[in-house]
Amino acid sequence: MLSIDRIAVDYDGVPAIHDITVRVPEGAIVAVVGSNGSGKTTMLKTAAGLLHPSKGTITFEGADISRTPAHEMPKMGIALVPEGRKLFGKMSVRRNLDMGAYTRTDRVEIERNLERVFRFFPRLSERLSQKAGTLSGGEMQMLAIGRAMMSNPRLLMLDEPSLGIAPNLMDRIFEVIADLNAKENLTILLVEQNVSEALSLAHFGYVIQTGRTVLSGTGKVLLDSDMVRKAFLGM
Ligand SMILES: Nc1ncnc2c1ncn2[C@@H]1O[C@H](COP(=O)(O)OP(=O)(O)OP(=O)(O)O)[C@@H](O)[C@H]1O
Ligand SMILES: [Mg+2]
Fold first, then answer.
1. For residue 158, which ligand has an atom nearest its CA?
2. What is the fold of 2-86+154-231?
3. Torsion region of 160: left, alpha or beta (phi above 0 gives left; psi -120 to 50 gives alpha)
4. Domain ranges in the chain?
5. Could you report how far apart the first and last alpha carbons of the chain are, in Å?
């Protein structure tokens, strides 16, 4: 479905990604793990059209999207839950959800999507008028995922959804990701620091190091690999 093929990405001429390849088959959960500064966020931003590769290509369902701007991605069926959630803190929960559907005009479908978000996150429906900035960390992450769901994506990309979340809520976030994939037919590209959880959940995984893809395989194979065990699991 999504194919990131040997991309390089720079920030004003300074290279951040040298050579990353990640493939996301339709229907799969794919996890990308790597240490701080390895280029995970840069990769997701590039796939979401916020940055563009200086080398290599990104294709989505066969179409080259390497130069497609971010504002056209929702229409194509791609949504990003950004690192640090990036909510509109002064706006209500309801307004934040509405912002996720800003490119759409089909009221009936939007309502149906809202109901789906509330089914996944009943807590949000109880807090519609609360300012997003006053939610707990876990609630904010639920809202960030809910907002992305409002564009009715087929590919959902998540940048460190478990970051800064209490352990009990973290399990809930991973459960939601698994459910979105299994029950709502969403293809998932997940970037995580929580390596064991992410690779346990994922069908396929990639390890990136200093801007390069260095290892790939099924989640289980990666979890059992010497490299992942030494570098991320402290074994
Ligand atoms: N806006 C920016 N301008 C310049 N350099 C940047 C910018 N954003 C990131 N970088 C650099 O690009 C490299 C990759 O950063 P990136 O944020 O993609 O890493 P990451 O794997 O997401 O790290 P983390 O786990 O800490 O979130 C780093 O060296 C970083 O300093
Ligand atoms: Mg990051």
1. 2
2. Rossmann fold (3.40.50)
3. left
4. 2-86+154-231
5. 34
> pTM for the full model?
0.93
For atom 31 of ligand 1, which residue has the closest CA? 37
Pocket test of ligand 1: the residue of 9, 22, 38, 50 to mutate, having most ligand atoms within 8 Å of its CB, is 38
What length does the chain have? 235
What are the residues facing 11 on neighbouring strands? 14
- Using CA positions, which residue lies closest to atom 17 of ligand 1? 41
- The mean of the pLDDT values for the chain is 92
The model's pLDDT over 132-188, given as tens digits with 9 standing for 90+, comes to 999 988 889 999 999 999 999 999 999 999 888 888 888 888 999 999 999 999 999
Ligand nearest to the CA of 37: 1
Q: Which residues line ligand 1 (CB under 6 A)?
A: 11, 16, 34, 36-42, 83
What residue owns the CA closest to ligand 1's atom 7?
A: 11
* Distance of CA 34 from the midpoint of ligand 2 (Å): 9
Residue whose CA is at the smallest distance from ligand 1 atom 11? 16
**DSSP tag of 79:** E
Range list of H helices, 150-225: 167-183, 195-201, 219-224
For the beta sheet containing 2-11, the strands, ordered from the edge strand earlier in sequence to the opposite edge, are 63-64, 55-60, 2-11, 14-24, 212-218, 204-209, 29-33, 187-192, 155-159, 78-81
Ligand 1, atom nearest to 42 Cα? 18
Helix H or strand E segment including 217: strand 212-218
